[in-house]
Please model this.
Amino acid sequence: MPSKKRNRKEERPTIHPKNKYSENPPDFALLASLYPSFEPFVFYSRDGRPRIDWTDFNATRELTRVLLLHDHALNWWIPDGQLCPTVPNRSNYIHWIEDLLSSDIIPSNVANKDKVRGFDIGTGANCIYPLLGASLLGWNFVGSDVAEVALEWAQRNVNNNPQIVELIEIRKVETSENTLPLEESHHGESEYSGNKLDFSGNKDREEATLPPLPLDLEVQGHRNYHGPPILLGVIRDGEKFDFCMCNPPFFENMEKAGLNPKTSCGGTPEEMVCPGGEKSFITRIIEDSAVLKDSFRWYTSMIGRKSNLKSLISKLREVGVTIVKTTEFVQGQTCRWGLAWSFLPPVRKIVSPSVREKSTMSFMLEGISRQHSALHVLQTIESYFCRGGASCKLNTLTFVVDVTYNQCDAIQKNEPQLLDKATNHELVKEISDGSLSNNLCFRVSVFQQIPGTLLVKGALQHKDSPISGSFSSIFQKLEEALRGRFCTNKRLI
Ligand SMILES: C[S@@+](CC[C@H](N)C(=O)[O-])C[C@H]1O[C@@H](n2cnc3c(N)ncnc32)[C@H](O)[C@@H]1O
Model:
């Protein structure tokens, strides 16, 4: 999985507050004193902090083993080279799903409220999500996989934990002759992520190395998935789930996975690679979900590259989902995105309080010099929003500009002010029935008051849009920009 190099000064979302490690990161010294098998992997840096060598697969595997044992009472192991999960990171995804299930955006499964049932696509030898979900929250799981070694070890990891054995079924995905075999290129030890986790909180930790984006993936965009079935053909007739989750094989081949000498979390080609990379894998999940529809309350997947979010959200629109939610998972130097969607009709619409308060706004521009007419101001408003990525319709007869911001563009351009932040952790996007409601549409009108004074009015057109809460801040920014341009000599726009 790729990671994202982040600017240290940038404000980061934090680890999920329900995560066991949010307040108390793993204490290597304590773990070493309690577990002799972990002790040889711990050393002390000059500042006296206990550390482990993240480039040593045996060290990262032993850390995961003792964390699962110490904090979750789970017996766990994986063979050499298999993908080794970092427990705090994986816990964030589980808690996000917990939030989705407990939110009242879509109806809960009233009949089976106490029996949550999840489907982990590609559970891996480590079987980490079913193990965490079952032990932390008592959830039932089906964990699927195609790889023999994954199926064998996932089952072993379940069987070695009698307290949750009843909750987890490991299901083999049957490959048909029409599917392409997974790539056979073996590079021995490989990196699955460009991440370096440093639980010690030491300031001088190194930034993550971002593996290069596969060039041909970028150029060619989406390639069709030709691998084994993912949901359709694996889910049985009449089966219902509260959610599915997936940490997909992200890369097209092992070369493209990029090798990061700073970490060693294992990961075989079967675990890391699928034809077309994560985009094609998740696109197939979306296509399957459009057939399976209400068999799942929530469909979710992890995404390794933010650049894939936009096209995947467009795909979701195409297939007519009712709700899309995204989140960012951040832990240490690791950054991923979560994408969730549903076909169930939303129970409520998310409208930020500011929308209810302010769907029309206005301001006066005074002291405008003679050479600037109302038409000039109107055209400036149009070009201001066009440059920000909106589409605009100018009417010079009525002195009106109609502005439409597309939500996906806002995400891609990283303009958080256009997105309605429902919690600190997630950006919520609700696409309700109509096609308009996931856009932000407003009308700006310019009125001549007296020479040198204009009134600028803004009126929100679709108040139910989930991102309409951003209207007032956008309008305030317009005011600032126009004042800078026309009322002083500062050229802001
Ligand atoms: C990146 S690993 C994730 C393993 C584990 N869930 C984790 O988070 O560490 C992806 C897994 O998906 C499996 N896989 C690939 N194609 C699959 C398919 N069509 N259905 C189910 N699993 C698949 C691989 O064998 C591999 O175990």
